[in-house]
Every structure is written in structure tokens, then in C-alpha cells.
Amino acid sequence: MAKDPLAEAGLHFDELNKLRVLEPEVGQKTTELKEECKDFVDKIGQFQKIVGGLIELVDELAKEAETEKMKAIGARNLLKSVAKQREAQQQQLQALIAEKQMQLERYRIEYEALSKVEAEQNEFIDQFILQK
Questions:
Q1: What keywords does the record list, in alphabetical order (predicted)?
Q2: What one-character DSSP code corresponds to residue 22?
Q3: First and final CA of the chain: distance in angstroms?
Q4: How many Cβ atoms are within 10 Å of 31's Cβ, its own excluded?
Q5: Total structural domains in the chain?
Q6: Of 17, 60, 78, 99, which is least surrounded by CB within 10 A?
Q7: CB atoms < 10 A from the CB of 97, how many?
């Protein structure tokens, strides 16, 4: 086979008989590489969309978790507040009970004293009536 003088000069004809600087094999491989790169870029784009959706979903879940956490903290604080209020109310009621018991004791002592005075006065009246 005779060497092609154009091939030696780095010029080649493609399947459409167009003059090319690259060899047909190199041109074909370059085209294949270009297609593979395009497919790779498309897949990377799809991957980025999927990851973006996942990040949005995780952000939403994080916000919901934070909201629920704040609700739980609020409920816990409210429960503590109610417990403290009940404890304070219980102490107030116990103080009121103690005060009423002291008042009852004073009334009982006063009743006993008045009963004694009444008995003495009745006895005095009886003696006064008997003397007349």
C-alpha cells in the first residue's frame, strides 16, 4: 500500500468526504467522548436536583422538629408553672386552715369562759331568788 500523502501531512477525509485535520478514529472517539460528557453532565444535573430536593426535605423536617421541640418546651414550662401555682395555692389554703383553726380555738376558749360566766350568773340568780 502506498502511503497517502495527505495522511502524512495530517489531513484526512471523513465518511462525508470532507477534509479533516484529525484522523477519522480520533474524530469518532472525540465525538463519543463528547456524548459521554454530555450524558455525564445530564446525570450530574439530575443528581443535583435530587440532592436539592433531599436538602429541602431535610430542612422542612428540621423546621418541624424545631417547632415540635418548642411546643414540648412550652408545654413542659406550662406544666411546671401549673404545678408551682398549685403548690402556692395549697400553701395558702393550709395557712388559711391554720388561721381558721386558731380562730376556732379562740372561739372555743371564749365559749367556755362565757359558759362559766353564765353558770356563775345563773347560780347567783338562783341564790338571789332563794334569798328573797
A1: Cell projection, Coiled coil
A2: S
A3: 176
A4: 10
A5: 1
A6: 17
A7: 10
Locate cell 501531512: which residue? 9
Q: Would you say residue 50 lies in a domain?
A: yes
Question: What is the domain range of residue 31?
Answer: 11-115
Within 8 A by CB and 6+ apart from 27, the residues are 14, 20
Q: Is the pTM higher than 0.70?
A: no
Sign of CA dihedral 31, 35, 41, 44: negative
pLDDT tier for residue 117 given thresholds of 50, 70 and 90: very high
Q: Which grid cell is 93?
A: 389554703
Residue 43 belongs to a domain: yes
Residues forming a β-bridge with 20: 12
3-state secondary structure at position 20: strand
Which residues, at least 6 apart from 24, have a Cβ–Cβ distance to it below 8 Å? Answer: 12, 14, 15
Residue 31 lies in a domain: yes
Per the CB < 8 A criterion, the answer to whether 20 and 27 are in contact is yes
CA distance 125 to 117: 12
Chain centroid to CA 103: how far?
52
